[in-house]
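To: structure desk
From: M.T.
Subject: fold request, one chain
Message: Could you run this one when you get a chance? Sequence is below, nothing fancy, just the single chain.
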Amino acid sequence: MNREMPGTAALAGKRAAPARARKRLLLLIAVLLVLLTALNLPAVHRWLPVSLWRDVPPVTSLHPIVEARMKTLVTEAKAQGISIAITDGFRSSEEQEALYRKGRDGGGAIVTNARGGESYHNYGLAIDFALRAKDGRIVWDMKYDGNGNGKADWMEVVAIAKRLGFAWGGDWKDFPDYPHLQMDFGLSIRQLQWGQRPPEDLKQAEAPAPAGVRKS
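Reply: Done. Structure tokens follow.
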């Protein structure tokens, strides 16, 4: 029994159908994104890159609130007879990547699990500190008691920092980072990578999150 072979045009049409369906789906998604962005819904701002609707300038320095709290930390520690040194603040993604390679390329210990763009330092939201001994040496001795009050200076500094709103890397269970202090303002690394930034005004930063936006 002879069967009629489908024509070239029919075969081409069948092959093109999935491609047309994909294009229609992508167009529909694009239209939905535009509509949702136009509505300015908080949920959209949380789950989509900010760069979809506005330019995001690069971060090049400490966030002003973090910088102000850092200076307060230094002042309050000094009032308790503790001199601290800020050993790191803003760190570029390139510097972060170089730090990540330490201990992985060649010998030495691994110092961080965060790659470039994966650290709060890269967004001006973290600092590292150490203690300054009476002879001027920079020390990372967590038992050092330079003010002679029977308490470890390091933990006294941590207590002040926490009261000022910093989170301490020493509380991390998987990879403790004892010199590290950060203020995330409820933003995850992914949100920061996608262009979200904390307000530079303290009142706005401390305001409750809008409905539909979780601060965690």
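Reply (cont.): The two ends are 71 Å apart (CA to CA). Let me know if you need anything else for the meeting.
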